[in-house]
Known about the structure:
The complex is a heterodimer of chains A (about 425) and B (about 280). With about 425 residues, chain A is an alpha/beta fold. Chain A has 15 helices and 17 strands. In chain A, the strands form four sheets. In chain A, strands 6-7-8-3-9-10 form a six-stranded mixed beta sheet, with helices on both faces. Chain A has a four-stranded antiparallel beta sheet with strand order 2-1-4-5, covered by helices on one side. A four-stranded mixed beta sheet of chain A has the order 11-12-13-14. In chain A, a hairpin with a 2-residue loop joins β4 and β5 (about 90-95). Chain B has helices at about 10-65, 70-75, 80-110, 120-130, 135-145, 150-175, 175-185, 190-220, 235-240, 245-275. The chains are: A alpha/beta (about 425), B mainly alpha (about 280).
Amino acid sequence: MSETSGTPSEQPRTVGDRSAERAATGATIRLESLTKRYPGSSDPAVDSVDMEINAGELVVLVGPSGCGKSTTLKMINRLIEPTGGRIRIGGEDVTHMDPVKLRRKIGYAIQSSGLFPHMTVAQNIGLVPKMIGWPKARIAARIEEMLDLVGLDAGEFRGRYPRQLSGGQQQRVGVARALAADPPVLLMDEPFGAVDPITRDHLQDELIRLQHELHKTIVFVTHDFDEAIKLGDRIAVLRERSHIAQFDTPEAILTNPADDFVSGFVGAGAALKRLNLTRVRDVEITDYPTVTVDDSLQEIVSRVRSSGTNEILLLDRQGRPYKWLRRGDLMRARGSLARAGTPVHDTVTRDGTLRDALEAVLIDNAGRVVVTGRRGEYTGVVDMATLMNSVQEMLEADRLDAMEHQHDLEGAAGGEGEA
Amino acid sequence: MRAPESGRGGASGLGVEAGREAAIDEGLAVADAMSRAAGLGWRKLTFLPAVLVVGLLCTWLWFRHADLDPLSENALSNGQVWKALRQHIELTVISTFFVLVIAIPLGILLTRGAFRRAAPVAMTFANMGQATPAIGLLALLVIWLGIGRKAALIGIIAYAVLPVLSNTIAGLKANDPTLLEAARGIGMSPLGVLGRVELPLAVPLILAGVRTALVLNVGTATLATFGGGGGLGVLITTGITNQRMPVLVLGSILTVALALLVDWLASLAELLLSPRGLETGSG
């Protein structure tokens, strides 16, 4: 499979800035009328699913409990044997290959981590590389690399047992184990379902970062639509028996749900959810007059006068936002800025979502929030008006895209009909 | 750990930090508890041997000064006590060996796919083995096989298979099915899942069964004398039939001491063989 897994030249999506030393980026997955029928029940649990997942893509299967999303996922690594249809991974038909060999090439991460409690973190991560016969030194190096990748200190965690870790740490190790043998495909079955919301949010961010580096093909199952929006390149909304209600980008599903089932699942507040999909760096960030704590009071006063604004942002020596200064504050300062002005409480990073920004703007008494760069340095300001404009433009663009998309589909269908 | 890549700075970030620190503290506390539990275990383990040594020493001193009549002398001389003790240990060791060889593989087999349905039947047989009074079973076996150690051994084995078998089955069944699915999911063969995950996790329960079986075997081995199998039972029966208290007492004390010693050794084995990492939590 690793030979057939998409070489970068075939798969434009995987071409990136990363160094080319590791070859195993994603492979395509094709499900062809995949069906699972349990003996003794009249209706199939999964009824003829067709799906094509591109190499390097993160696809989320989302749907209500018992819709067969987990069953569909487990048929990909044949933990559940399909009763009909085909599975192709990287072009190779794996429907009848030895399941044990197949699974060693597919990463698998599950809810509450699935770590073996009697093995140390290192043993857990090293399991698959050991099974496929890597030499000891390479396994040891890989364990270190994987722990580093998921943000755990190897020296501290290598020798620990899973029960000595917190839920979030266990889940990280679970992901590290799934990735240890560098599989092109990763299956994740509600991996963050059992951790607290803060940790879950954090783990989701980590997964996005990982995927940015690794470009695996990831199939992710969840019943949490917000999680699906946050993580998915594309989302498959499934209804009962794993029928695909809609399979599209998060933007398209939010702005143009295919039917009542999907819009019901999207739930209220689609516009708000849409804010999660856009980063602060994608909207207009206005520049504000700034001064630093090293400037003298006279300089600051003249700066405020010349800027024509009512307010000015005071930065500390590292260029990080420190205080908002109003004209009145300066009048009352009497030679010292120590007690003047309003300290900056909340900031957003350029990587933050618009939802984060909106929340900060709503809380702020003047309706604006400072945007900071990686090291916390000032880069600009976002205010209510900018946010409103961006959201309007965004929704309008989505609507146009969706219409165009639908038009294309109809055109394609018509073309096929004629041919 | 890395800081979040996206999201707001300030309070939420601090919350994550604090949460993580709490998690690490929790981990340390768990490790601490584990080492404390182990310490307690070792103290318990040194207590019993001390009691045994004192008890045996007292018995020995008493016998040195006891006035033994010729009949008692006769029963205890010429290294007969050592012989009985050696026979008893042999009976225990051999029977336990066969119990393990029969019960553990059978237990494993009865939790595999197609054989799972046979489990109740096998358990019924094992139950019958234990429900039958050992001495009655022994008498029947002697009639069938004739007098000797073989009949005695079979009787002892039949009596002790149940605890090991039922604990093996219970231990394997207690394993979290999602964990076993994870094991299969990452590409372990069925044999690999059994050897690397199922059995190690079931070891504590299996060992508990083995410990019960061992103690049972020391006890039932005293009955071997009725089938001509020797052992400490010889001293006890001689003491009773000849009405010689010292012989009876010595036989009984040695049996009790041996049972306690074997139990102690088994608890030691439990402590050493149980996989690490299971000490905390629900396992």
